[in-house]
Design goal:
single chain; 315 residues; alpha/beta; Rossmann fold; six-stranded mixed β-sheet; two-stranded antiparallel ribbon; globular; disordered N terminus
């Protein structure tokens, strides 16, 4: 972590980092989930940047959004084309200054980027879990992260920070472990999804499950439900942009043409944008992970779980 690579476009970067793994909850001591099931052994992929001070009081825990991973900054290899997803924010002299702070990012359970999820091998069957993997919650993700903190000997977090589903995790941390967290920075998130947000997520999930290759979630030995996942991602991207921002970004501009073709296809720039995002997504993400993580986000409700319906009481 001490090697620095100078990048003209983004400024100094943390340099070479390592994808690390932590395993716990080996049977019979499984991780008990809020839904009543138990899973184990559980593996978490994580990354650290910066240096831990003597009293371990300079720790910042970063959470990624739905399709993110633990690779928040720097490079795994000097030839890697792009740095981690938040390299613009995490590094020496940046907003989360690794000259001052020890920064940790853990991939969430349920994901497909090194942590235990539906694409992991079930040791009891020798096959990928698929939809035999139990449903999880934001709280379950936090419990796994707490196990990682215990493993690293960290008893206090200077700050927790994340956006979207990562912001939900930040909120869950401060309510679940208030004595451990000194500050929180939740970004572009909520204490619970609205009916509209749940509706968009459900349509996206149905797009995956309607794909003929989904096979009730047990598709790992054959063709994957790529079309359904691409459509789900397209639906998601519609929710990431407001009507006004879409109007400013795309309007009714045509894509690489001066007139309508009177054919089905990506004629408008907004159509081309959505199709491009869908095609890119299927190259790096698992359809079942999309189902599980969006469902966990829909379940999240701080007021219901901690405040008997009152958000004030929850906090």
């Amino acid at each position: 972590m001490s090697e620095y690579i100078d990048q003209n476009q983004t400024g100094a970067t943390i340099g070479i980092v390592e994808k690390q793994f932590f395993s716990f909850a080996a049977p019979p001591d499984k991780l008990n989930l809020e839904g009543g099931a138990g899973i184990g052994p559980v593996t978490l992929a994580y990354e650290t940047c910066g240096f831990l001070n003597q009293d371990k009081s300079n720790v910042i825990l970063v959470f990624h959004a739905l399709s993110g991973d633990s690779h928040m900054a720097g490079y795994y290899d000097p030839k890697e084309p792009k740095p981690g997803w938040w390299d613009i924010m995490v590094g020496p002299g940046k907003g989360i200054d690794t000259d001052k702070y020890f920064v940790i990012c853990s991939n969430i359970i349920g994901s497909c980027a090194g942590s235990m999820g539906p694409s992991s091998i079930n040791l009891e069957t020798g096959k990928a879990y698929g939809t035999d993997f139990p449903l999880i919650t934001i709280g379950d993700m936090v419990e796994a992260q707490k196990a990682l903190m215990d493993y690293l000997g960290i008893k206090s977090l200077l700050s927790v920070i994340g956006g979207s589903i990562g912001g939900m995790q930040a909120l869950e941390w401060i309510v679940r472990y208030p004595g451990m967290v000194r500050s929180a920075i939740p970004l572009a998130t909520t204490t619970r999804h609205s009916a509209l947000a749940i509706a968009f997520n459900e349509v996206a999930r149905q797009a995956i499950m309607a794909d003929p290759n989904w096979n009730e979630g047990h598709y790992y030995s054959g063709k994957k439900p790529d079309m359904g996942l691409a459509i789900a991602r397209m639906i998601g991207h519609i929710t990431y942009l407001s009507d006004e921002s879409m109007r400013k970004k795309f309007g009714r501009k045509l894509q690489n043409r001066s007139a309508l073709s009177f054919e089905f296809g990506a004629e408008f720039q907004v159509e081309s944008y959505l199709q491009h995002q869908g095609k890119k997504f299927i190259e790096r993400f698992d359809a079942n992970s999309f189902l599980y993580i969006t469902k966990a986000a829909d379940y999240f409700d701080l007021a219901r779980q901690y405040g008997s319906g009152s958000l004030v009481k929850a906090f």
